[in-house]
Amino acid sequence: MLFKFKQRSVTLKLSFILLFMFMITVLSSLGFWQLRRADLKRSIEIALKERGSDVPMLIGNNTLNQETDEYRKIIAEGYFDNQHTMLVDNQIYQGQVGYYILTPFLYKENKAILVNRGWIVANSDRQKLPPIESVDSSIITVHGTLYHPFKKPPFYLGKEEGWESSGWPKLIQYMNLEKLELELGYSLQPLIIQLDPNQPNGFARSWSSFLPEMGVQRHIAYAIQWFSMAFIAFGIFIALIKREINNQNQ
């Protein structure tokens, strides 16, 4: 009995140590994750400030670079492909569920870039897509800001191509550019244009409302909280170890 009791005591101590080590590791990891998020937001803010103040670039034959061209002001001359409008599902604006409206804009023969024309509210019956106003198909000039395409949502279990409906307009969950190019019959730039709010042919476009609200300082504050909890857990762990040693010495 004495041996079993001691054996059980050792097992409990090992479980106790593993539990605290796990807690400290998780809390510290969350702190470092918030710091990485802060660095990402800081780089986005710097890019927005630097590239947003540049002279708008005119889109040409070259393929845009997702890293160096994102957030730059852009001008494109061409026409909208009204026959191939897409609705990006599950977009929140001012507490309401709706869609982003993407329409290809052809600026060269067989070359296009998707234009985010803004947000519209979803119908109460989600099985029915809202009507979308067509745009003028004549040659026009559009102004906007380059932005990354919509990425595949985590834990996405839908179709590989990313869209949920056949025909047009098409309901999509994310942008699979290769599949879209095959469907459209022309090439697409790897970035999209967020249509400027003062441009016609758009919907709700308060783009600042669609950006992540949490800034750099808030991420740092959360990181400090996680690190503080990890430090407290470590302090409790040391205090309990010291108490156990003192009890054994008595």
UniProtKB/TrEMBL annotation:
Q: List all membrane-crossing ranges.
A: 12-33, 220-241
Note the topology in the membrane.
Multi-pass membrane protein
GO cellular component terms, semicolon-separated: plasma membrane
Keyword Magnesium among record annotations: no
Keywords of this entry: Cell membrane, Membrane, Transmembrane, Transmembrane helix
Q: Where in the cell is it found?
A: Cell membrane; Membrane
Q: What is its main location?
A: membrane
Q: Which Pfam families match?
A: SURF1
Q: Report the CDD domains cross-referenced here.
A: SURF1
Keyword Transcription regulation among UniProt keywords:
no
PANTHER family membership: SURFEIT LOCUS PROTEIN, SURFEIT LOCUS PROTEIN 1
Q: What family does the entry list?
A: Belongs to the SURF1 family.
Protein name according to UniProt = SURF1-like protein
